[in-house]
TrEMBL record:
Record PROSITE patterns: HTH_LYSR
HTH lysR-type domain location: 1-58
The protein's name in its UniProt record: Transcriptional regulator, LysR family
InterPro entries referenced in this protein's UniProt entry, alphabetically: HTH-type_LysR_regulators, LysR_HTH_N, LysR_subst-bd, WH-like_DNA-bd_sf, WH_DNA-bd_sf
Pfam family, one: HTH_1
Organism: Limosilactobacillus frumenti DSM 13145
Similarity annotation: Belongs to the LysR transcriptional regulatory family.
Amino acid sequence: METRVLRYFSEIVREGNISNAARHLHVSQPALSRQIMDLETELGVTLFERGHRQIKLTQEGHYLYRRSQEILAMIDKTEYHLQGQDMISGVLDIGAGESASLKPVMKVIHQIMQEYPEVKVNLVSGDSELIRQRVNNGVLEFGILMGHENMINYATLELPHPNRWGVLMRSDSPLAQQTEIRPSDLIGHPLMASAQTRRQDTFRHWAGELLGQFKFVGNYNLLYNAALLAQTGACLVLTYQDLINTSASQNLAFRPLSSQVVDNNTLIWSKDKPLSNLSQLFLRLLQSEIKKEKLVN
């Protein structure tokens, strides 16, 4: 399986049909079709369901596309590191969950982009399992994990400003009249949370023996969509503070959990893989920014 053919395959997926992909790749449509058919023969699978104008990925095609993006990103990064060792350029790949407490990280990224306009940034949102996986396989240089995680296999840097847990709800909900939410307040209410939330010790310790009485009606991985559901009054949503606009026009309210339930943010990176010049710069600037914030506070 050649890298060139993987790039051809990825371009076809992005364009949605072979004709457009062939124009962008500056190859003939018959030649491109033949390359993909050869790839299918080599792998022994069908990658596309071919229609009159558009093509649709099969299950095997979806899998190959996801993996090809990781493979091609690794190849591009490797080529860059080999060809430009003394330059501050390239791509900074960072993965994290959603948190308003990541502002120091974004401040440093802004500084780098201002000073080095050729630098590109990839921000990947996901839970801790996804972030760990992509840091482990080298697709992400850095990851930010939230909560109490086992980080013994990584180099780490704890970030300031922990995330406070709370409940997002309609502003006319009876619970919105309270200043904070106790475990007993959630009994009898339909709840939605991320799958990671329900596994975390932080939340489980707060809920205690009442956890078994909570009525979870589903999980979310995109908070914005869960907030839209909360606006209907269908459920309460467990999330971090300051992620969703709760102004009066949004008909939403956020109330923190009692006892100051918080998760820390920790930057991780591989202990064994050397950092690029760009990544080293990012780390130095972030360490400096954290020191400044500690002095101010």
